[in-house]
């Protein structure tokens, strides 16, 4: 393609290139706006196909960039801007958009002798991005705005045929996989590769803009295109030379792609009437329909129909419409089966249950409604008010389904209403009273019950079930049960009422008896202990059966989830962990309980700490082990604390007992002390003085006794008999005496005591 921004003035572009017709008069260009490129180029001008594949040989082009960048091939990005190049308020208002920029505008007035004008155009844009989701969101704007010259309100005629939707990237494309579906694809032209004759990534098909006008009235046209949001990614609109002409409106194309095609045996009157003294010629697929000279023509089959109107013997007006013929939906007669719950020959049907069979599961077909007669179904009158709850009036009554396709073509299918006649007798369903009460009342999982029913030989495994609590609810199809059911009203046995449906059709109705068997009654979970110090001795675990003969049950023992392969009522164990016993009775009902065997052990005494030779002697015992321990001193009571206070001097025994019965650990301990007095009177009581509670291993202890003046009275062996209160064979008087006890580690204990006579 080549472009030319200099040869033609705006007046010439409109009057001589776009219109070029004596039947459209008083053509006056009133305004033109484009980008300022310092005189080097324009954003509008003339184009020629130049032997390329572009569908217009020549014409007028308006762009949001430089005209030279309109020319192919499509190897660069047209992305132009210019100083102070603003948008257009009229375009924004009519298209209900905002924030336009880089607007190119050609405005002109005209008059026509016919009541309609049209011209052909094509929109192209860099914002067509094949495979890119941006195509779904962004588009420049353009409009062909027209109004009477003495009015202010514009109409946009650059729209999708038969709608008011503006033509732009986001309303005309073939879809972006994963981002947006095709939209108005019939009006999309192509994605453009590098060899395209124009420098844009995509383009629409050739479209026609049509406007109704009043003959010989002045109209104002504003051709405008603008970038939206920013100047990036230019667009252009091409107007075919000489295509602005008088037009005859034969209505929109009737196309399969638009779901507007005629249906078989459907006809349509084409009306080309124009004011004035006119003559008419009709054509089909390019060939004149000889003898057809009226202003109307009855189209009965597919084809491209055209009309040539000579207005007042002078001006030619052309009209064309493409008509395609669709097909009626393919539908299938069927029989809808329901259950006659009370056997009176009358029941309720959901007629839409037959839809899958009628349409053969074709999602492109729509089942509109059901009717009592073929005539009503064909005309679409008097539909059945509530097809989801239709009560028949006779055996094998017939109703009629009206089915349409996307093109609106209709077919009628016959639906015969019949009854299910399948005899299903279900065995009783045994279940267990598993809530721990054994009162004959339990909760039943209806999904498990359905699985039980579908496993019966005379029930299709493709069926589904619906449960009811009473025959009345089944007949009325009310209060269906779901999830779980508790037989609160009938302990140990109950009856549910079942509707069996296969492939959406009632197959049978029946009932099923529920038998609730008791489960074994077991003692609650418990915890016991195993003494690790007694390994490999064993302890006995009991199953915990509270009633019944133990020989009438089966047993399974597990340790921490591992099967021990033992099946007796009691077992011997010497390993800690969680033991689970599952007991099963003759009805197959089971109950389980857990016995946690925790480790325990005799204590190991790690340390005994003694505070001695004080006013408050104490002993602290430190132990280790897996048990729970308590402590006693000599023959006293056991206590939880490991500390004993106010301990008398002398020799003691500490006892550490495991509360879980794993044994008692004893330990001897001595507490050093010094008597406060002695009475050497020969009565056998307190006749000697010496330290109490010395460790027998401390053999080097020495004791010295002094009188009040510091005179050494006696030096004795701490492990001997003691001092008898004499000095050199003489009795010493009652008085206070002092001592120094030196231990083997060098520590000294000093104090005093009284001698009383």
TrEMBL record:
A matching Pfam family: CHU_C
NCBIfam families the record matches: Bac_Flav_CTERM (TIGR04131), choice_anch_L (NF038133)
Protein name: T9SS C-terminal target domain-containing protein
